[in-house]
Amino acid sequence: MHLWVTRPIEDAGQLRAQLIARGHQVSLEPLLRVEYTNEDDIELEDAQALIATSRNALRALAGRPEEADCKRLPLFVVGRGTAQVAQSMGFETVIEGPSNAGALLGLILNIANVNDGALIHLSAENVAYNLCEELRHLGYHVFQPVLYRTVKVTSLSDTLLRQLHSGSIDGILLFSGRTADAYVEAVNHEEITSIARQMTHYCLSQQVAERLSPLNPLTIQVSEAPNIQSMLALTERRIAP
Q1: 70, 87, 160, 216 - which has most CB atoms within 10 Å?
Q2: ω into residue 217 within 30 of 0, thus cis?
Q3: Is 2-31+153-239's fold the same as 36-149's?
Q4: Extents of the domains making up the chain
């Protein structure tokens, strides 16, 4: 199959290689652009641990004056990919949780003491799940400095548009609700709804799939688990005899 990978460039390289190894052709065109910001300070005084629910939050930390002090604190992360980025950056204690922020909450509750210092969530400007609000409701002291934002890309490249109009792209991989929103806007902006309805949409979760509803009817397949391996399995199923 010829698949359109929509992840930001920083996260797409390994996925692209895995798809190619499985015999797929890949067009890499992100629908979100990551922009780092230094608007918020990271207040570490009396902090007991950090939280990162995205690799981009850790990348945004690189080069900031608080970076060295952050690396000495325990770090709760979502999923193996974020854990690997943290380890490669030199964080001393990385506590790897499940692959979504909601499931990470239980791990934090089991380890972090509500009566100890603050938890610092290294955050995006927009978050799909408000982990900090949940922790505050349970009595934790939580700070949420914004380190980056994602900007939707709604104008597609000439190369990708030629591929879409020729019918050569069979499917698209969508890993977040915000990416799905950007995709809907791009399809409407480029006036390619009829083309979209000829592709298979591989979605990380049902929540991602639901964000595509303005374009229905679409062919949609939803991953059994919110991780890359399940998404890869989903594309394999499409080409099985």
Answers
A1: 70
A2: yes
A3: yes
A4: 2-31+153-239, 36-149
134-149 pLDDT, tens per residue?
A: 999 999 999 999 999 9
> Which is nearest to 112 in space by CA: 138, 79, 89, 144?
138
Residues 86/77, Cβ–Cβ less than 8 Å: yes
Q: How far is CA 145 from CA 85, 110, 126, 195, in A?
A: 19, 23, 12, 40
pLDDT (tens digit per residue) in 49-100: 999 998 999 999 999 999 999 999 999 999 888 999 999 999 999 999 987 7
Q: Report how far residue 228's alpha carbon sits from residue 189's, in angstroms, rounded to the nearest whole number.
A: 29
With beta carbons less than 8 A apart as the criterion, state whether 205 and 179 touch.
no
First to last CA, the chain: 13
Its CATH class, for the domain covering 36-149, is: alpha beta
Q: What is the pTM of this model?
A: 0.81
Q: How far apart are CA 216 and CA 129, in angstroms?
A: 25
